[in-house]
C-alpha cells in the first residue's frame, strides 16, 4: 500500500469549500427550501407588465405591482449588471401595504429591456449614445410619466440605480419633482464611482484603454466572459457577500447563485458600455433640487465597490431640512457585515427605510384627501 501523501493545497480547498460564504448560504437556503419548496428568488405575482419605447428606440420592460390608483407608488431603479428582480424581497413586503404600488423597470441594456433592433454588433458610438446615466435618468422620467402620472412617489435606487434616481430628479419637471415623498439610495454615489474603493480601477489607464478599444474587442470580450462564467459565483461569495447573508430573509434563498445568474445574463456590450460612465459620471449638480425631499442613504461597511465615503459625499450634497439649518436632509445608515448588495444581504433594513417614507407619504395623502 502506498503511503498517504499530505497535500496542503487539497486540504485548503476542501476547508474553503466547507466554510466559504457561498457554502454556508447554500446550506441554509437548502434547509429552508426543504421546509418551503416555493421559496425561489425573484418577483412573483406581477399584476401588469409591458414595454415602454423611448425616443431613442429602447424598449423598457416594466413590472407593475399593486393598485393602479394607489396614492403612493414606490419606483425602483436597479444596479449595474442586475435586473428589477433584485428588489424582490422589498417588493414582497411593500405589496402587502394597502394603498401602495410598486413599479420597476429593467435598466437599458439589462434584463428584459431591449436595445434598438437596428443596433447590431454595437459600436463605440452606440455605447456613447445609448448606455449612459443621462439616458437611464430620462428612462426613469418616462416610466413615471407613462405609468405614475398622479400620486406621491418614493424613489429607490441601488448602485448605478442611485445615479439613475439622481439623474431623473435633475431631468424631471418641477411638477413631478414636487410629488416625490422621499428617496432611498443604497450602495450609491452622487459623484463618480471611481473616486473611492475598488472602482478606482475604472479610471486607470488599463481599463480606459480597454474601453477605448470598444467594438474591436467585443468578440474577444464575449468569449472571455463565457469562459469565466463559472468563476462569477465563487468570486461573489468571497468579495461581495459577507456574514449578513447567513441571517434573516436572505438565508431562505441561494442569493449568491441568484446574483451570479443576473451578471452572467448581462451582455458584454452593456458591461463595456457603462464602464466609462461608472468611472466619470457625476450627478453632484442635483444637490439643490433635493432640498425638501426626505432622503435615506444606506451603505455597507464592507462595500469595496461603493464604500462608505461615497455615501458620505451624498450626505454633503443633500441640503439641510428647509428652515432648519444644521438638520441633515438625508439620514445615513451604515450597516455592519455587509457589502455592495445590501438589498439582498440586509433586505429588512432596506425595507424598513422604504416603509418609513411610504408611511409618511400615506399620511400626507390621507391628510390631503381630508
Automatic annotation (TrEMBL):
It holds the Pfam family Abhydrolase_6. It comes from the Bacteria. Residues 27-36 have a biased composition (Basic and acidic residues). One of its GO terms (molecular function) is catalytic activity. Signal peptide: none annotated. InterPro entries: AB_hydrolase_1, AB_hydrolase_fold, Carboxylesterase_BioH. SUPFAM superfamilies: alpha/beta-Hydrolases. Residues 74-352 form the AB hydrolase-1 domain. Residues 26-50 are annotated as: Disordered. PANTHER family: HYDROLASE ALPHA/BETA FOLD FAMILY (PTHR43194), PEROXISOMAL MEMBRANE PROTEIN LPX1 (PTHR43194:SF2). This is Pimeloyl-ACP methyl ester carboxylesterase.
Amino acid at each position: 500500500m502506498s503511503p498517504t501523501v499530505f497535500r496542503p493545497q487539497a486540504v485548503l480547498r476542501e476547508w474553503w469549500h466547507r466554510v466559504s460564504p457561498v457554502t454556508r448560504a447554500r446550506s441554509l437556503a437548502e434547509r429552508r427550501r426543504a421546509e418551503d419548496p416555493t421559496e425561489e428568488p425573484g418577483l412573483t405575482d406581477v399584476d401588469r407588465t409591458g414595454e415602454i419605447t423611448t425616443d431613442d428606440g429602447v424598449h423598457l420592460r416594466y413590472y407593475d405591482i399593486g393598485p393602479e390608483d394607489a396614492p403612493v407608488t414606490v419606483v425602483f431603479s436597479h444596479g449595474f449588471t442586475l435586473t428589477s428582480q433584485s428588489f424582490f424581497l422589498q417588493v414582497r413586503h411593500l405589496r402587502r401595504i394597502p394603498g401602495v404600488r410598486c413599479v420597476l423597470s429593467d435598466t437599458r441594456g439589462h434584463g428584459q429591456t431591449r436595445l434598438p433592433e437596428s443596433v447590431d454588433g454595437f459600436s463605440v458610438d452606440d455605447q456613447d449614445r445609448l448606455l449612459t446615466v443621462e439616458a437611464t435618468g430620462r428612462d426613469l422620467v418616462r416610466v413615471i410619466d407613462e405609468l405614475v402620472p398622479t400620486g406621491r412617489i418614493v424613489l429607490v435606487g441601488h448602485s448605478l440605480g442611485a445615479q439613475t434616481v439622481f439623474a431623473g430628479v435633475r431631468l424631471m419637471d418641477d411638477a413631478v419633482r414636487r410629488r416625490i415623498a422621499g428617496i432611498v439610495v443604497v450602495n450609491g454615489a452622487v459623484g463618480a464611482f471611481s473616486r473611492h474603493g475598488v472602482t478606482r480601477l475604472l479610471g486607470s489607464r488599463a481599463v480606459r484603454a480597454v474601453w477605448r478599444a470598444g467594438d474591436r474587442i467585443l468578440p474577444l470580450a464575449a468569449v472571455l466572459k463565457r469562459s469565466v462564467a463559472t468563476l462569477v459565483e465563487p468570486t461573489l461569495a468571497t468579495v461581495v457577500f459577507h456574514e449578513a447573508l447567513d441571517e434573516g430573509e436572505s438565508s431562505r434563498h441561494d442569493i449568491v447563485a441568484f446574483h451570479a445568474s443576473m451578471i452572467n445574463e448581462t451582455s458584454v456590450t452593456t458591461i463595456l458600455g457603462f464602464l466609462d460612465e461608472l468611472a466619470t459620471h457625476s450627478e453632484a449638480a442635483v444637490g439643490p433640487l433635493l432640498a425638501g425631499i426626505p432622503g435615506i442613504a444606506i451603505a455597507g461597511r464592507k462595500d469595496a465597490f461603493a464604500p462608505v465615503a461615497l455615501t458620505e459625499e451624498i450626505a454633503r450634497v443633500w441640503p439641510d431640512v428647509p428652515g432648519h439649518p444644521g438638520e441633515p436632509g438625508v439620514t445615513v445608515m451604515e450597516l455592519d457585515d455587509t457589502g455592495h448588495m445590501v438589498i439582498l444581504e440586509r433586505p429588512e433594513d432596506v425595507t424598513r427605510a422604504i416603509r418609513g417614507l411610504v408611511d409618511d407619504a400615506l399620511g400626507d395623502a390621507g391628510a390631503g384627501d381630508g
